[in-house]
Design goal:
With 333 residues, the protein is an alpha/beta fold. Among the domains are: 128 residues, no CATH class; 59 residues. Helix content is 53%, strand content 12%. Strands 1-2-3-4-5 form a five-stranded mixed beta sheet, sandwiched between helices. Strand 3, helix 6 and strand 4 form a beta-alpha-beta unit. About 2% of the residues have low confidence.
Length: 333
């Protein structure tokens, strides 16, 4: 898995999960081999795939912090190939124009540093929905010329198209092999449709799937972050028909709590952190609402001393766990 922190997933669930999974060249190589057109996928040396996003972030080329850029080579030819991986949660008719601009900046940078020939650039959009992607992926369709003008101006129009996987139409059964990729894409799809519990029903039936601890940890974190009304124990109970995966998931709560607190320290929150005030806040919350979801415990554990003091005073006025979540959101925890 990538170096993306749990806090990124907590605060920006969709983008954070996307980057946590697909920043890994292994996961992205698996994705592209399955979803690029077969002729293109067949000529790329996937062992050469390298995440070079940081280079373009520093040069302010990326349009969005959720974009990923990879370099690769093709077979026995020294041809540099850039794959732009654009994570999109809304339908954007101007996406071909946006990606053309992005591609031109990549090409301009390459030309400035290395000259000619130019590298191939393949832009690809992973659309998370929930709406269906119902607009063209071709730049020339944005001109919308009347019939008499098409023939006259066609030679002067730029031809450009981006790849697309629309998760609103994704069917995991269409995958030829059982892979962790199916889990990631199905969770991203169903999370946007607010069907997280249904996803875990589906996952429980996938008894032949094998997930690494890291991927399961990240997926559970995403599920709990995208739907804060859920408790980890609900998700674990959903896996009861898949004992192996359920056992794997049961080791998650303590790690999550400890990790959340550690991230709170690492992110520069004040060191005047008081365990006594933390225990008071957790005790008050438990008395008020019963069991407090582990994710919320982790977020409370990441607060600094001043925030904990304020929370201990405000807890009496908070009506529901959703109010507590809103309080933590405003506190930036």
């Amino acid at each position: 898995m990538s170096s993306v922190q749990d806090s990124d997933i907590i605060h920006h669930p969709n983008d954070g999960y996307f980057k946590a999974v697909f920043s890994s060249p292994a996961h992205s190589a698996d994705f592209f081999q399955r979803h690029l057109p077969a002729p293109a996928a067949a000529v790329i040396d996937w062992t050469s795939l390298e995440n070079v996003s940081a280079t373009y972030v520093s040069d302010d080329i990326q349009v969005s912090h959720s974009d990923l850029v990879f370099s690769a080579r093709t077979g026995d030819r020294e041809v540099l190939l850039y794959l732009i991986f654009e994570h999109q949660t809304t339908v954007d008719r101007a996406m071909p124009l946006r990606l053309l601009h992005y591609s031109l900046r990549l090409l301009t940078k390459h030309h400035k540093e290395s000259g000619l020939p130019l590298p191939v650039v393949i832009p690809f959009v992973l659309h998370q929905g929930p709406d269906t992607w119902n607009v063209s992926t071709c730049l020339e369709d944005l001109f919308d010329l009347p019939e008499p003008l098409q023939a006259a101006f066609q030679p002067f129009l730029p031809r450009f198209q981006h790849g697309l996987l629309d998760l609103s139409l994704y069917d995991p059964a269409s995958e030829e092999q059982q892979s962790a990729q199916r889990v990631v894409l199905q969770l991203m799809k169903m999370a946007r449709q607010k069907r997280v519990l249904e996803f875990f029903d589906w996952l429980a039936r996938e008894t032949t799937l094998r997930l690494t601890d890291a991927l399961l940890h990240t997926s559970l974190m995403y599920a709990l972050s995208t739907d804060t009304t859920l408790d980890l124990q609900q998700l674990i109970r959903k896996l009861s028909t898949n004992p192996r995966m359920q056992k794997q998931a049961m080791s998650f709560p303590e790690r999550l709590l400890l990790q959340g607190r550690e991230e709170g320290r690492e992110e520069g929150r004040e060191e005047g952190y008081s365990l006594g005030v933390l225990k008071t806040c957790l005790r008050l919350a438990t008395r008020k609402w019963g069991a407090v979801p582990k994710l919320l415990e982790a977020r409370i554990g990441a607060l600094d001393y001043t925030q904990l003091e304020r929370l201990s005073e405000d807890l009496l006025d908070l009506g529901t766990l959703n109010d507590l979540t809103d309080w933590l959101d405003k506190a930036g925890a």
